[in-house]
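Postdoc handover notes: sequence design on the structure in folder B. Input tokens:
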């Protein structure tokens, strides 16, 4: 508990330093936050126009899809804000700055998580919260304490999944610092995919984002329980309650892969 407490204290100090640094340029932070809010809002407006034209898609109403959209927007905004150190890790390796992290008597994961808490991601977060509010109001969800807890677990699980993907992206930089954009297919692509019900996708695509990158376990399956809908593939409701556990498990596995990468790392000599 002492080591954990020390780690949390250090993390808070790193985040506080990051926030102080960013707030030196408040106008830039405000403008970039508003820009992010407007860009992500335009995405939901496009979704609204689609449903306004066709009424429903695959038997799903806009208020139902808005729940998936809002959850993944909040989830990705939080994970993206926390993971700047991993997202930019290829440059850290290329510049030799990772050597300095290894010399410090603290976990490299903790140091990279505390590298920056990106304030401008608040724009996407606010937009996601607004969409969630719409889904709660228009969807007539029968809220219970269990469903509220499941929603919270869904968000935490989604954060773990996206963090895990970014950890894998960073780990790949130990072998190559080029062509890492392929990981965007699983981060930004995963965000776009999970904004819609997985039932509308092909089996192989659904399996990829359920069993390999378990975004569906974090967003779609719990969402079915919250909405009171049955899975089109016949999965029992208990699966939706247990599915968020996949997020922490996935992150734990990704961190094991990270440790393998760190052992493989050879110093740049800087």
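Designed sequence:
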């Amino acid at each position: 508990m002492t080591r954990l407490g020390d780690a949390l204290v250090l993390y808070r100090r790193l985040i506080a330093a990051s926030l102080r640094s960013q707030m030196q340029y408040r106008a830039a932070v405000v403008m970039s936050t508003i820009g992010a809010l407007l860009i992500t809002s335009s995405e939901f407006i496009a979704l609204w126009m689609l449903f306004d034209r066709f009424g429903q898609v695959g038997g799903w109403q806009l208020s139902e899809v808005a729940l998936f959209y809002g959850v993944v927007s909040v989830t990705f905004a939080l994970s993206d804000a926390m993971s700047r150190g991993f997202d930019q890790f290829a440059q850290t390796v290329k510049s030799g700055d990772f050597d300095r992290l290894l010399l410090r008597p603290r976990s490299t994961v903790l140091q990279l998580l505390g590298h920056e808490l990106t304030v401008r991601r608040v724009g996407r977060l606010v937009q996601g919260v607004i969409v969630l509010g719409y889904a709660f109001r228009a969807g007539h969800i029968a809220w219970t304490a269990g469903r509220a807890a499941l929603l919270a677990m869904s968000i935490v699980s989604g954060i773990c999944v996206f963090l895990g993907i970014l950890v894998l992206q960073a780990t790949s930089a130990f072998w190559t610092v080029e062509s890492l954009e392929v990981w965007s297919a699983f981060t930004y692509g995963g965000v776009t995919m999970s904004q819609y019900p997985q039932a509308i996708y092909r089996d192989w695509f659904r399996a990829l984002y359920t069993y390999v990158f378990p975004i569906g376990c974090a967003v779609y399956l719990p969402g079915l329980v919250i909405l009171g809908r049955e899975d089109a593939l016949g999965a029992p409701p208990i699966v939706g309650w247990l599915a968020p556990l996949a997020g922490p498990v996935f992150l734990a596995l990704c961190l094991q892969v990270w440790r393998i990468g760190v052992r493989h790392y050879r110093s740049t000599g800087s």
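Context for whoever picks this up: The mean pLDDT is 86. Don't rerun without checking with the PI first.
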